[in-house]
Structures are given as structure tokens and as C-alpha cells.
Amino acid sequence: MIKAYFMVIWPRRLGSPLLSLAAAAMLLVSACGGGADTTGRDPVQLTFWAWVPGMDKAVELFNRTHDDVQVRLDNIPPGPEGGYAKIHAAVLAGDAPCLAQMEFQELPSFLLNAELTDLDPYLTDADRADFQQNTWDLVTYEGGTYAVPQATGPMALYYRADLFDKWGIEVPTTWAEYREAAAKVRAADPDAYVTNFPANDASPFISLAWQAGTPWFDTRGGVWNAKMTSPETLKVADYWQGMIRDGLVKVGPHFAPGWYKDLASGNLVAIPLAQWGEAILAANAPDTAGKWRAAPLPQWEAGGKASASNGGSSTALLRGCEHPREAAEFALWINRDPGSVAMLIESGYGWPAALDGMSSPSLTKPSAFLGGQRTDKLFTEASSQLPRGWVWWPGYDETRQTLNDSFPRALAGEGTFSSALRAAQTQVVEQLREKGLKAQ
Amino acid sequence: MRTVGLRWLTTVLLLVLAAYFLLPLYWLIVAATKNTGDLINSSPLWFANPQLWTNLGDLFAFGDGIYLRWILNSVIYSGLGAAGATLIAACAGYAMAKCEFRGREALFNVILAGVLLPTTAIGLPLFLLMSDAGLANTYWAVLLPSLVSPFGVYLSRVYAATVPDDVLDAARADGAGEWRIFLTIALKIMSPAMVTIFLFQFIGIWNNYFLPLVMLSDTSLYPLTLGLTSWQGFADREPILQTLVVVGSFVSVIPLIVLSGGLQRFWRAGLTEGSVRE
């Protein structure tokens, strides 16, 4: 199951006692439920842990339309708020469900402890062709496929068309133009900014660095090569720090009451945001409906075609799953079936990874929040223009936390974003080595 | 003059501290009366279109009234857990104070070391145990670990030591059994300690997050902490949940306030009682 080459990057972490313990537990479990397989009548029971709104309806639909497999959904707290800790614990105890919701960036941390099941044997070429190719990149590590991609977060520039018109500002297509627009916004309204920079949350910054072109990690030569301080990433860091220094961008958290308030009152007028953010804007700044539009994310080079993705999720198969074939079937279905995808879109889970999903009626219909604009073409392109080669690394959460701590310090005068990135890189390489991985 | 000045200083200091501690509660009360729009847009420290009853109605209606279930669960975990923990701690503390046996001090020191272990640190090992025993994702998974209170044993022992040996000897001379002595005499004298243990344990279990998080996956078994967090995860997409999380938090502190207020009488009396040793 574990490929030889794999072992170069992922060491054999699990001692054999633990494995035999897990095996013994599985034997016990199958001894209890042994009757089910022989009769061939009882449906296979699978458990699925997730926290995506609307998932309950999709699972219900699956159960209604399937006789051989039945899935029980447990709504666990969101991954970053303890959900992942819970999944880790359950796998360790040999008590895990077959399936779990997993953001792309978390997969490596689970893989490091061999907590996932490779579903490569259960995937056909036709299955793969149904999903956007670059989303498979995000769930594939050294030849193994550990999850079915669910959704990505292609980013766009959401801007207030009414205010741009009023102030005579052109929609920026490059980051240089975005900076000029930022200055004009400041001049037009002393309370308004183009956007705010969430210094306490590096996730959007990491996405914008992704757009710049050099992935923060690659695994060439079987080594985790850190490239967090590439000229491309430092360019992004200097850009935003410069914007903040010159008072063109506000500093403050995203998805927080103050942010919603600024959005509702027209104090933030052109924000780079993932597609799933639109539903959140619409829900939290309802009075501004119809005034927003979406445009492609500004580019580093005029005429460039690089997008970025923020957030994004998959359905992963956990270790110890007794029915991996059925679990894979479910994972494919829930993320590919038009009915299921439509329900998940409805609740704002993101941009579908399934190609057919992108032309789902709820995505092709004009958006009232965006004044009747259709965004399916914009995001279909954006999701296909995600720079390839990005690899999430084990310990992403620690790296993000390090940056969350050091970016605000940089703004308080202690170093710069660039020096924060350098320090974070040194730290992450050390951490990877401590985990027994080759890293440089 | 100096004492008057000092008294003023003390009063001001206490007022400042009280304000510091009460401000979050005040905010919670104010916020619990707002609708989602006002929650974000109105002044955080003053009322805007109060609609507490609407919010409460929404709270108990959302998701087929799952909130009520979570309250019930929290009461079960905290009530039974704290009651059991108090009884066990009282027994253990009394035994350690009044019974001579080999290894008593060593055992006591081990228990004392348990006071230093944060419950979060033992959450995972406990889960592995419970999972092995087939009790994960049941009420027992949260209840059983809640029955243990090393701090309670420590406090019980301190209080049990104040039970005069003469009284016990007299009771024995009158023919009372050890259980009867414990239940009728020792427990009475130790009751202030027991109130304290009950209260601490109740609040501890009520506020515990990590243990139920790893133990439970069935939403209908969740305590309030877990339930409210899972709501908050959806709150960006369903803004009404922002209001419900706030109102839910407000309702969830009421039992603690009532309990602390109700038991304070016993508690205060107890602390002074225990402080004088004859």
C-alpha cells in the first residue's frame, strides 16, 4: 500500500505495536459484525465526519438513492476548532470513521502519521477526468491519492461598482493598478480603504503568494525544499507591507464583526476574496446587495493569467476503513453527483472541483448580490489558472501560526514581513526535520 | 485619616476589578438582546432594538430544539459528574486523613500530582482508554472521567483532618459502624469542603471542551460548549447563528450564576470554619 519512494519523504512512523493493535481492533470489530458481508444483503454502513453546512442534505440524498451503502453523518466541530484533533485521536484509537472532511492543507499532517487510506485502487481514469486536474494535484502525494477533491476557493476581486463609478476609478487588472486605486479610494473618502490586511491570519497572504508563482515547498529529490523566501513571495510581502506603511490598506481581521461592519458601510471597497466569500458577504452585508461586482484577481504582470485559491476541501479516507471501495464510491458521489453538488453549492461550500459542477444552475444564474452579474466563466477560468506545483506541507498549521504571530509584530516595528518569512522558513525546516523528514 | 484614605483606595480598586470582571458579562447580556445586524453594527455596550424573547425563541427552535438537548446533556455531565466526584473525593479524603495504612503518603502525593495535570493533556489518553472499552461516543465517555477530582481529594483530606478524633472514638464506643460515622458525622463537618468541590467540579465539567470534543461525535450527546462551537462554525454562512451563539452563551452561564449564588452561603461559612483549627 505504501510505495517505496514514498518512504523517502514519509518515514515509517508507526511502530509495529501500534499497527498490530489497530489490526487486532479491526479483527475484533469484524468478528462482531461478521455476518453482514456473507449474506450480501445488508447495506454497508459508513460513517462520515464533516462540518460543511448542507452536507446533511447531500448525505440524505445519497442514502435515498443507494441501497448497498448507507452513510451516517456526524456533524463535528470545524477542523481548525478541534475537529482535526478529534480525527487524529480517533484514528490513533482505531475508532475512526471511514470518511472525513479535510481541507487540502491538512492532508500532509495526516499522511505523516499514516492516517489516510490510498484510494488510488478504486479510482478509474473516467473518475479522474470528471474533476479538475489541478485539484487532484492537491490530494496526491508521491503517487498515492488520499482524498476526493471537493471544492476550491478561486479568488477574485470583489469591488463596489457604485463607488468606483462615483469616484471615477478603473477596475485594476494588475497589482500596480490596485495600488493606484487604493490611493484614489483614500483620496475620495477618508473613511474608505480598498481592503484590509488580516495580519493575524496568514492564510489569504499564503494564497496571494501562491499566485505569484513559486510554491512554498516542493519535494524534488525526495526532500522537502522550502522556498518561502523566493523573490516572488518576497515581492508579495513587500507589496502588502508597503501598502500598509503608506496607509493605503487597513489592518484588521477578516470574517469578524468589524470587517462585516466596514463592508456594510462601504469602508472596504475592493477586496481580493475567494468565491465562497461571496455568500458570506451577502449574508453579512445584505444592504449592499447589487452594488458589488467581481473581476479577475489583479495580476503581477499586465496580461498575466494566474489565479489563487484560498481554502478548499476534500473528502478523505481514513486509516482502518473496512470498506474502502464503498467509501471511495461515496466520496466520489458526494463531490460529483449533480444533485449533491447543487446542494453543497447552495450552502456556499466553495467552487466545485467536479467539472460538471461548474455549470450547475446555481452557479450559472445571475447573482443578485453582484447586480445580476454571472460569474461562472470568471471562476471556471480562475480555477483552471491556479499555478500548478503547489504542495502543502506537514505542519502547515504551525507555519501559519508562526506567521500569524510575526506579521503583527512586523507591523509594530519588529522586523518586516520578509524577515518574518525567513524566520518562519527556518523554523518549519527545523520542525520537518524533527518529524524525521528530510528538509532544507 | 490614613485608614479612611486606605478604605477609599480599596473600594476604588475593588470597583475597578468588579467592572473588569463584569464587563464581559454585561456585554453578553446586551448582545443577547440584539438581532444579527445590530450585533455587528450597533454600539457594543448599549442596547439596540432589544428582542431577547425573539432570540430565545429562535434559540430553542433552531435545529429541532437541539439546544435544549445540549443543556440537558451539560446538566447530566456536570450534575452527575460533580455529585459523584464530590462523594468519591470525600470518601478518599476522609480515608487518607483518618485511616492509617501503608503507602498512605505516597498515594496521597500521587493524587496531589494529579492536580497539576491539565484535563486537556489527559483527554487523548482517556479517549484511547474509552475507545478500547467501547465507551467512546456515549454518555459514559464524559461522565466517568468527570468523576475524578484530585483537587477534591486534597481538599477533603484537609477538612477531614479537622474532624476531632475524640468525636470519632466516642461514636465508635457507642457502637456506630465506620460507614455510619463517615456518613453522619464526618460528612457534616466536611460539608463546606464538599460544596466547594461540587462547585469547582461542576464549573470545570460545564466549561470543558476538549474531553467531550474527542469523546463524542454524535451531536445529540454534545454538551453546550461543543454544540455552540459547532454552531459558530456555520455562523459565517448562516448569520442568524451569530446571534444564536451569543444568546446560547448567555443562557449557558445562567445555571453557573444561579449555582454559585445559591451555594455561596455554605461556601463562605465553610471557608472561615475550616480556617480555625482547635
TrEMBL record, chain B:
GO biological process: transmembrane transport
GO cellular component: plasma membrane
Classification via Gene3D superfamilies: MetI-like
ABC transmembrane type-1 domain location: 71-259
Keyword annotations from UniProtKB, A to Z: Cell membrane, Membrane, Transmembrane, Transmembrane helix, Transport
Transmembrane residue ranges: 12-29, 75-95, 107-127, 139-160, 181-203, 240-263
Record CDD domains: TM_PBP2 (cd06261)
PROSITE patterns reported in the protein's UniProt record: ABC_TM1
Compartments, record wording: Cell membrane
Keyword 4Fe-4S tagged: no
Entry membrane topology: Multi-pass membrane protein
Short name of one Pfam family: BPD_transp_1
Domain of life the protein comes from: Bacteria
Assigned protein family: Belongs to the binding-protein-dependent transport system permease family.
Name assigned to this protein: Carbohydrate ABC transporter permease
